[in-house]
Write a structure and sequence with these properties.
Radius of gyration: 13 Å
Number of strands: 4
Distance between the termini: 20 Å
Helix content: 40-55%
Number of helices: 5
Mean pLDDT: 88
């Protein structure tokens, strides 16, 4: 499932975000891997550079919860880093939240 997640994350456009649940839906739809947004989050937390070639960027910072909340905020610096990366891409983050009506990417 890690490689499929990496492939999906690489398709998220610059300046857009997806929810853990949307990634779970795509895993089911495209790969028949039945999972949940919670499990996707757990798997993402286990990713390390050895899981993908060093020349591939895996934009994990573009994955947030379905309400638009930066879930990593509870992890301190990691959440702040995610906010900074999103802001560099032009995503407006206010009080740790992203407006999903504006920035949510839906796989087609």
């Amino acid at each position: 499932m890690k490689q499929e997640l990496i492939g999906l994350m690489q398709r998220i456009p610059y300046g857009m975000v997806v929810s853990y649940g949307e990634l779970a839906s795509q895993l089911d739809r495209q790969y028949s891997i039945h999972t949940s947004g919670w499990l996707v989050g757990r798997v993402l937390n286990t990713l390390s550079p050895k899981d993908y070639p060093s020349d591939r960027v895996v934009p994990r910072w573009r994955v947030i919860n379905k309400q638009g909340v930066i879930s990593a905020l509870k992890l301190g610096q990691r959440g702040l880093d995610q906010i900074n990366l999103l802001r560099k891409e032009g995503v407006q983050v206010t009080d740790g939240m992203v407006d999903m009506r504006i920035y949510e990417y839906n796989f087609i």
